[in-house]
Amino acid sequence: MADIDIHHPHQLSMAGARDAVQQVADKLIERFGVDCRWQGDVLGFSRAGVDGTISLQPGEVQVRAQLGFLFAAMQGPIESEIRRVLGKHFG
Predict the structure, then answer these.
(1) pTM for this one?
(2) Which of 5, 15, 33, 44 is most buried as measured by Cβ atoms within 10 A of its Cβ?
(3) Domains, the chain
């Protein structure tokens, strides 16, 4: 198993940050068939080989994920893509 833990600052309101995370979640659902669910200010996501959360806090978003065996080999490119998407949605 490989772990991802990324902290990214943002200047959005909590409502704006939640909308941005929902846009990301909608893409994950569409492209990868990921199951997503909100619990407070935390979006949980999962599919075979990946389990994680996107947590919202004032001024910061945190992405945590556990990658299964097959995805662990692609940890670097996955982290790079997460950082790119966070930069796009959260500046």
Answers:
(1) 0.91
(2) 44
(3) 2-90 (3.30.310)
